[in-house]
């Protein structure tokens, strides 16, 4: 019995199928990133959320326990802005009410040796921010007027850096 499909056609079909499966496996269902999240502290030591919106909008932010196991990613706090954040810098205190922000889930106590992540989102999942990971030790190293965020290099590598607010504002959107 002879096949009616030629080997080259079959190989191209299998190759195209493999490429399609690979693309489907690597493409997530996440919102595109158009903002950069960071953290800072106030002069009296309160933790600040910092959001540099690059062009579209962000409606709120969530702080969660950062874990490679999705089941262990527990929300620690969540905030909604009273109006969509558009291009520019926004800050708000995470542990107490802040003008223009509503805590949709009040900040739970943070614990040592736990890694947290803060990211921004939109109500309709159309946009998001890159996230920033930190521990209490990282927070304790911050000084007022500085921002810790995860910088993305041109090759895609991420590294946490701490810079003055003005430098964050001027350069955070370059690689988002």
Radius of gyration: 21 Å
Gap from first CA to last CA: 57 Å
Low-confidence stretches: 8-28
What is the 3D shape? globular
N-to-C SSE series? HEEEEEEEEEHEEH
Tally of alpha and pi helices: 3
Question: How many runs of DSSP E, i.e. beta strands?
Answer: 11
- The chain-level mean pLDDT equals 83
Structural class: alpha+beta
Helical content band: 10-25%
Q: Tell me the major beta sheet.
A: 6 strands, mixed
Strand content: 35-45%
Set out the fold topology:
Layout lengths: L6 H20 L6 E9 L5 E7 L4 E8 L9 E11 L2 E6 L7 E5 L10 E6 L6 E3 L1 E3 L1 H6 L4 E7 L5 E7 H7 L5
Parallel strand pairs: 1-8
Antiparallel strand pairs: 1-2, 1-10, 2-5, 3-4, 3-7, 4-6, 7-9, 10-11
Overview of this protein structure:
This protein is 19% helix and 41% strand. It has helices at residues 7-26, 136-141, 165-171, and strands spanning 33-41, 47-53, 58-65, 75-85, 88-93, 101-105, 116-121, 128-130, 132-134, 146-152, 158-164. The strands form 2 sheets. Strands 1, 2, 5, 8, 10 and 11 form a 6-stranded mixed beta sheet that branches. Strands 6-4-3-7-9 form a 5-stranded antiparallel beta sheet. A hairpin with a 5-residue loop joins strand 10 (146-152) and strand 11. The longest helix has 20 residues, at 7-26. The protein starts with 6 loop residues before the first helix and ends in a 5-residue tail after the last helix.
